[in-house]
Here is the input.
Amino acid sequence: MDPVIIVGAGPVGLALSLALAAQGVPSVVLDEGAGKEESRPARSVVLRADMAAMVERLGCTTLRDEGVRWIGWRGMRRRQEVRRLTLDLGLGGTEEWSEDPAAPASPAAPLHIPQHSLARGLRDAVSRQKLIRLVTESRLDTIEQDRDGVVAHTRGPAGTWWRGSHLVGCDGARSTVRKLLGIRFPGRTAVERHAVAALRTELPWPGEALSHRQPPWRGAADEITARPLPDGVWRIDWLLPPRGDLVTPDALVARIRETLAGWCDGVTPPYELIDTGVHTLHHRLARRWRVDRVLLAGDAAHLLGAVGTQGLDEGLRDVDNLAWKLAHAWHHGGSGSERLLDSYQSERRTAVATRLRAADQSLPVLRGGGGLRTYLPGATRGHDALLTDGHVGRGPLGAPPAYPHSPLAPPYTEGQTPVGTPAGAPVEDVRVTAPDGTTVRLRDRLGLGRLLVLLVAPGTGVWDRRHWRTAGVMPRLEEAVDALPVKAEVLVTEAYPGAPAHAVLLVRPDGHLVAAFSGVRPEELYAAADATRGGSDTDGDPVEEAPEEASEVSVPSDRTADMH
Here is the structure.
């Protein structure tokens, strides 16, 4: 079968190719550039803990060496510290929890890394994959579709026709794919502007990120953000007027010296200026994310980033949502696969629209207008708390998305039971026992295109695996899982937040909860799994896992050969 064509070799396109390869799907990645990443330390990205874990599962090794997780977050206004959070340096897993839903919890520490380091790590992972073909200097100019696939033409030294089963546009804000499809991209221009500098120095808060509103020194920006990187490097952002004067080198150096002196008792510490830039943020949302066999992801589908929201993090969530659905469609086809691909737009576009709406409502509140504060969820907790939430991954500006109204959600049944995670929300990263008897994190079992069936069984941790695998409800559960219409894996955990003993949780390949049941209920479990794959159709064989040794993808470069 033809590979998936991915247009764009930025982090989103590379991550998608790796996520598909993990599920046995070949791809061709068309890179308009020469295949090299320009080193720009001032262009860094923040990944929430779950997306950082996903990127590491894909084989990217640079996160640990060239990224850093903040140990805390500080909020200051004028000369006073108004908020301080200690961040969980784990990956956001739940070790302990309280029965009190109002009990405070430390947010999982985000990961901060230069974008070129992230992209290089993903390229290295791609180079080790036989199922991925990366083609540089290939600029897309034509897309044609038929009922069986997509044909694309590229210009460049290797300009030719390519045939694929599907095509995904991961080609950025000026997406050629989106323009060829005639999809509108409405929104707001220059929502925020920031002067940015990456510099090596010592600040009074090693390892902590800082948001400083209304600094007291003359000529300061209304807001300054400082975020640490490895090796004593900091990225500092100064909020600029939306349509102000150009930032000259002399003006930026003056800002740096004034800011460092303001934070260091009036004395500018030694510093090494590494990189600078001006970052302009836009808010836009594509009208459609799918046209038959062509889809959009990342900046080609949405632009956001004001008040702490993270555009690349959202692009990787597109990958997490789309990869398992596209892999199912590639392996099986059928009407259920069409509904599955439709759900990508339904779920992700709604989630990003909600995030954009919250950010747009926040701006008048946080930047001094104040007219919408009564309409914004969470605004009563204060401006500083709201801004902090956007940066550390909580609240309407930052929390991982849930899909409570997903078209893949199964109907409610009497056998379902409430747990600490609402249906459609990401599950907690609890410790689980895998089929081979090893103890791992639940998150480690995601991304392979199979459903996860999690049994809550207190006491199993002290039993010998040979005993509990054949005791209690386990034989009946494994029999029910073997009969499911899609491939699934049984996992066991000692406890799960809010779940009673012997509860059974059905989890999607991207880690979102489908439903939880009070005990083993084969018919209801089957119906929920069937809904998750898009519903019944003539193609009811189980999903096959990715082969351990996959053959290298081969793509004809001649259009005549492609069409046969």
Remarks:
- DSSP finds 14 helices and 26 strands in the chain.
- The mean pLDDT is 87.
